[in-house]
């Protein structure tokens, strides 16, 4: 495949305009059009369609762009690693993680790891499950930690580390605090929702679907677990949260827990890497083995 044409096509797709892409690339508009037509001829697929004054991708075009972006991200990643090797620098560890491992597990693991390997630079990014996986697939991180129900991705290799419990929370002193209620009863309460892409949100929706209970009303929606917990502590909302994040708040009676009849929720934490990255750096291998051994005793 013509990589030059693919690069131009990716720029057109990102800007949704042949004219704007031509200006950004400092080439003529006809030259951009020719490269796209050549790419369509080479693939035998229609990749773009006219939409108003701009363009939109066909289904095939969207498929090609998604993979082309990952290809060029991998190219940048290789260039950065080659520069590090040339300069004799130790390779950084770039880690992406969902909120729970990033806040309650990785700080402990990284502190111990840095004591053994003080010269290794570590960069940690946290986000929701979708964001974390995207960073891994686009070579923005070397490994990822996610809390997610049984799942598979053709480009990701995963290692199960441990399982964690999830609890339903209400404000301390709420009518359901310390009580056992049905899922339907609890779902009548205003809920604190996480953003789309959050594994906690997915768990709640799946529970409602499995037990044929209407999805609760959204009382508030937050883009973070800590914000949701603070709202419950302040006296508003019901939420589903990982036990690891709220057990200390329960001990201090800052929130209350609700037992839901017949429902226990446990979800796995996975350590993820890209398939094909078989020859990982020595530093990364050190850290992966360290985490696998540490998680056994957590």
From TrEMBL:
SUPFAM superfamilies: Periplasmic binding protein-like II (SSF53850), Winged helix' DNA-binding domain (SSF46785). Residues 1-58 form the HTH lysR-type domain. PROSITE patterns: HTH_LYSR. CDD domains: PBP2_LTTR_substrate (cd05466). It comes from the Bacteria. The keyword Transcription applies. Keywords: DNA-binding, Transcription, Transcription regulation. The keyword RNA-binding does not apply. GO terms for molecular function: DNA-binding transcription factor activity; transcription cis-regulatory region binding. Pfam families: HTH_1, LysR_substrate. InterPro entries: LysR_HTH_N (IPR000847), LysR_subst-bd (IPR005119), WH-like_DNA-bd_sf (IPR036388), WH_DNA-bd_sf (IPR036390). PANTHER family: HTH-TYPE TRANSCRIPTIONAL REGULATOR, HTH-TYPE TRANSCRIPTIONAL REGULATOR GLTR. Belongs to the LysR transcriptional regulatory family. This is DNA-binding transcriptional regulator, LysR family. The lineage of its organism: Bacteria, Bacillati, Bacillota, Bacilli, Bacillales.
């Amino acid at each position: 495949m013509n990589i030059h044409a693919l690069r131009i096509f990716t720029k057109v797709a990102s800007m949704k305009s042949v004219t704007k892409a031509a200006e950004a690339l400092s080439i003529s508009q006809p030259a951009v059009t020719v490269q796209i037509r050549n790419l369509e001829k080479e693939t035998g697929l229609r990749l773009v369609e006219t939409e108003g004054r701009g363009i939109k991708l066909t289904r095939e075009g969207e498929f090609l762009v998604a993979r082309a972006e990952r290809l060029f991200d991998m190219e940048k990643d290789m260039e950065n690693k080659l520069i590090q090797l040339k300069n004799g620098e130790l390779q950084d560890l770039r880690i992406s993680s969902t909120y729970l491992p990033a806040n309650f597990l990785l700080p402990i693991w990284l502190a111990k790891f840095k004591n053994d390997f003080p010269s290794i630079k570590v960069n940690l990014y946290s986000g929701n499950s979708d964001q974390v996986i995207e960073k891994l697939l686009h070579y923005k991180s070397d490994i990822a930690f996610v809390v997610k129900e049984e799942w598979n991705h053709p480009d990701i290799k995963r290692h199960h580390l441990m399982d964690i419990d999830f609890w339903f929370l209400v404000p301390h002193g709420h009518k359901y605090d310390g009580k056992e209620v049905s899922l339907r009863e609890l779902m009548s309460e205003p809920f604190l929702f996480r953003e789309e892409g959050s594994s906690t949100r997915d768990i709640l929706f799946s529970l409602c679907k499995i037990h044929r209970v209407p999805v609760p009303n959204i009382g508030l929606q937050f883009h973070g677990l800590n914000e949701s917990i603070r709202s419950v502590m302040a006296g508003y909302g019901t939420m589903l949260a990982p036990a690891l994040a709220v057990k200390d708040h329960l001990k201090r009676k800052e929130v209350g827990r609700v037992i839901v009849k017949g429902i226990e929720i446990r979800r796995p934490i996975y350590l993820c890497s890209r398939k094909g990255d078989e020859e990982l750096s020595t530093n990364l291998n050190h850290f992966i083995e360290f985490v696998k051994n540490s998680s056994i005793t957590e």
